[in-house]
Design a protein that fits this description.
The chain has about 375 residues and is α/β, with parallel strands linked by helices. It folds into two domains: about 15-240, Aspartate Aminotransferase, domain 2, CATH 3.40.640.10; about 245-365, Aspartate Aminotransferase, domain 1 (Alpha-Beta Complex), CATH 3.90.1150. The protein contains 13 helices and 13 strands. The protein has helices at about 15-30, 35-50, 60-70, 90-95, 115-120, 140-150, 200-210, 230-240, 245-260, 295-305, 320, 330-340, 350-365, and strands spanning about 55, 80, 100-105, 125-130, 155, 165, 170, 180, 195, 270, 285-290, 310, 340. A four-stranded parallel β-sheet has the order 3-2-4-5, with helices on both faces. Strands 10-11-13-12 form a four-stranded antiparallel β-sheet. A three-stranded antiparallel β-sheet has the order 1-9-8, with helices on both faces. Belongs to the DegT/DnrJ/EryC1 family.
Amino acid sequence: MEQPNLIPLDEPFVGQAEKDNLVEAIESGWISALGPFVEKFEKDFAKYHDVKCARSCFSGTSALIMAMRVLKIGPGDEVIIPALTFSADAFAVSLAGAKVVFADCSPNRFTLSPADVKNKITEKTKAVIPTHLYGRPAEINELKKICEDNKIYLIEDCAQAQGAEYKGKKVGSFGDFNIHSFHNKLIATGEGGMITTNNEELAERFKLLINPAPMNVTDLAEVSINQRMSNLHAAVGLAQLDRLEQTIAKKLKMAEAYDREFKNAEGLTIIPANPEDRTVYWRYTIILEPSINRLEFIEETKKNGFITREAYNPLHKHPFYQADNKLSLPQAEYIREHALDIPSSIKLNEEQIIFIAKKIVEIAKKLKK
């Protein structure tokens, strides 16, 4: 059990605008999915990403699950995903009855390797799901070309990357169908998700599949399930979207301070952001030298008043998938063994950021063998 009063990895900011929107939504009587904040949130989210359509839903996970149905992915199909990602990407594919195919990260990146994707495409491959992990854009142009050349779907997982840009263009605008999460992310609504697409037909199918009782529809043609976002969640989301650029500016300022403090540190390195992209640092991550025991490092940071956490365990190493995978994915496995997420909240002040950074440098020097 974690000690109380430790500086957390992240902490959402909820301000007066969110409170005002919630009061307005409650007083209007529209608290379910049929409310004006839902429509406004979707419209503004689409405009922000420069796409034709955005449709809200209950969570990023529900967006992934329903994406499989929208794109008619099922038994006999294969979907390539990064091994280093949140479990929902794999679970959505498995729940659809399709086969999960794991691929490695690119060297010196946390994101899906286009070269490994190319090697793993078969005649059964139906889609590729790159994750913009920790707010770092994947090599999306290369992945998009691979998908177009092979006539397969590109589904961007933007859960951790609202506002991130690849070569000047927002992530979530490249793929055929893209998912977003608002659970303690750069936009935080408690629970919530969104899809973005330029395909109006896919957007309409998604809307029907998450709504089991659409108005003015008397003959249901397909099984659907309630996965809608409420007007209350959308009210919070709209306020957070309006403030997203301010949130990102604070994340970038935090990252600049960490970069500066870690530049010549002993025992650790960082993977620098690509200068052509905009990384939004949902989480700031360091790489420890192999001689440092990461679990010992985590305990030392707790003693100094803040939390650090291991990177995701690559999904091909989880028991549910391990039996079918004798894979070696060295980049993802190295990140798991040596990477740590450190406090990345926009609530951190400059004094706290410098304190955390200096303590990390001290601990790394102390534990380096």
